[in-house]
Amino acid sequence: MERRTPTVAIPPEQRPFNEYQQLRSSYFFRWATVEPRVYLGTILAVWSVAWIVSGPVAAWSFPPGRMPWQFLVGGAGGAGIILGLVLLRLYLGWSYVHTRLLSASVHYEETGWYDGSFWTKPAEDLAKDRLVVEYQVAPVMRRLRRTLAALALFYAVEALLCWLM
């Protein structure tokens, strides 16, 4: 597709700053922006609720009465997979908005998926969007990357425990 400044204005809901505001105000994605204590509490809550699915699967594989450690490690790992999927969804949503805010021109759809075009941001919008990225979106992205790295470390410990058992 060729890049051109359209004669029709970009729809307001597809402007990167408006997408950021919608993301920030949505119940699910707002979770990544709360204070650290609430953020960690929500991570633990999601992991605990994920035990509803992973616990029975782990119990079927490793009967808790005969193999308690394997049951705990298996259930924790299964719950971690569900938590990882939730965190990955958070990261992908924030990453999408991050990319669109940083770009000098963005793709948008005029009436449907088949007739998209590119919009080149005015200098003022670009400067505003980049400030939003620097002070609002980048800290959220760092937090999510650190959380995903901690989850990867959790999986490394899980793998080591499985290997030792």
Automatic annotation (TrEMBL):
Pfam families per record: CGLD27-like
Membrane-spanning intervals of the chain: 38-59, 71-92, 147-164
Keywords from the UniProt entry: Membrane, Transmembrane, Transmembrane helix
Entry superkingdom: Bacteria
Protein name: Ycf36 protein
Organism: Gloeobacter violaceus (strain ATCC 29082 / PCC 7421)
